[in-house]
Structure formats: structure tokens, C-alpha cells
Amino acid sequence: VTRLSHFDFVKSEDLDKIGLGKPAQRRLWDTVKKAKLNLKKNRFGRKVLYIFEKLFKIMSSDEFLILFF
């Protein structure tokens, strides 16, 4: 498992087989859940920033400021 997306295919039984205890599994799943949430937030932020950059290039700076602020 080298990427966050690989955890979509991992089951608790697999972690049991490699000797990971139940408390450690809970901590691992909580960490994976938080990391996926942060990844989604970052992707959304990058998309919004990309859209604003494209709009700013198309419009003059005055039009952009009037439209969004």
C-alpha cells in the first residue's frame, strides 16, 4: 500500500493477518479518512483557483474585481 487510494481495497481482515491490532486499525482508518477529506478539500480549492486564474486572464482586472467583489 503506497497510495491513499490503495486503502479502498484493504479490509480489516487483511490488517489482522499482518498482525495489526484493533486499536491500531481504528487509528489507521481514522487517519485515512482525514487524509482523504483533506485531499478532496485541496482538489476543490485548486479547481476554484484555476477557474479564477482563467477568468482573470480573459477579463481585465477591473471587470474581474467588479464581478467577484
TrEMBL record:
Arranged from A to Z, the UniProt key words for this protein are:
ATP-binding, Kinase, Nucleotide-binding, SH3 domain, Transferase, Tyrosine-protein kinase
GO terms for MF: ATP binding; non-membrane spanning protein tyrosine kinase activity
Transmembrane domains' residue ranges: none
Q: Taking every annotated instance into account, which residue ranges of this chain make up the domain ACK/TNK-like SAM?
A: 1-34
Does ATP-binding appear among the keywords? yes
Q: Does the keyword Glycoprotein apply?
A: no
EC numbers listed for it are 2.7.10.2
Specify the protein name.
Answer: non-specific protein-tyrosine kinase
**Which organism does this record belong to?**
Ciona intestinalis
